[in-house]
Amino acid sequence: MDVREKIQNFENLTLIKEAAFSKNTLGRNIEETEDDIRTCYMVDRDRIIQSKSFRRLKHKTQVYIKTFGDHYRTRLTHTLEVSQVARTIGVGIGLNENLIEAIALGHDLGHVAFAHNGEEVLNDYLENGFRHNEQSVRVVTKLENNGLGLNLTKEVINGILNHSGLGTVKDIITLEGVVVKFSDKMAYLNHDIDDSIRAGLLTKEEIPKEIVRVLGNNSAERLNTLIKDFVKTSNENINNGKKEVGMSKEINEAMVELRKFMFKNIYLGDTLKVERNKAKFILDEIIKYFEKNPEKMPDMYLKISKAESLKRGVADYVAGMSDDYCLALFNNLFVPKLVIN
């Protein structure tokens, strides 16, 4: 018996029957020989961590554009916080922690530079729109590994595709995927409040009192409330024969209200409007440049431009750029250099 089989036997002993067992995976689009040590979901996790797209997350904005303070979140630290929250919940319920980790680490690989501002620019640019969850799937199936993709399991791809929004979970094929979907919101709402207070753009007193009463008065209290309620409610559902994970009505409604508050006051509020417009201007100019000069793009994106469309190739190239790379590229293309006669 190899190590992987021992791990799979351990899954049989420790996971609830509603969990996604690695031995029962739906598999990959391209069949592979199984690893001697790692389960399929462990392999997926490692492929995501080793990818270029994952490394670029450290220089992609979470909310605050080009913030020089060391303590503000980036897209990478957000991803790690989602993984931490989701794994805690998963273990509390008895779900597959390795699958949860793989989905969580890969869920935002398709995010554009300058946070949702970049997504808005590409959404206007592409005829069929742009959604970062779909781009994340495109990254792991088509763009990574020099155009070969990472050949991840179908469970991980499904979880990545369906992680965004607070809507229906009917398209998510595993409970582990549902856990990541909710953990994403728990993580970003709390750390974005923390960053907003640190930046002086929000005070604790501005958070609606009813939300504070239900969820708590600081990040630690809110996360503790959300995580414990999710585990408790999910375990009650499972014990009562319902294959369903989630939060109680009161806690879920409070989180929805907190999300509305953050969108109104921070994400789409007037406070960051000037900086958002600057970011959009930079991306607009870069997109225009590569539309006029597609030969300046790397070969892979030229091939996509020819096989699909020029806009698709440009969008894929720009979507992969980090904030730092966009700023450096913009300066190189459009800011005059010192010329000494």
From TrEMBL:
It is an enzyme of class 3 (hydrolase). CDD domains: HDc (cd00077). It comes from the Bacteria. One of its GO terms (molecular function) is dGTPase activity. Keywords: Hydrolase. Residues 75-189 form the HD domain. It holds the Pfam family HD_assoc. Its EC number is 3.1.5.1. This is dGTP triphosphohydrolase. It comes from Clostridium saccharoperbutylacetonicum N1-4(HMT).
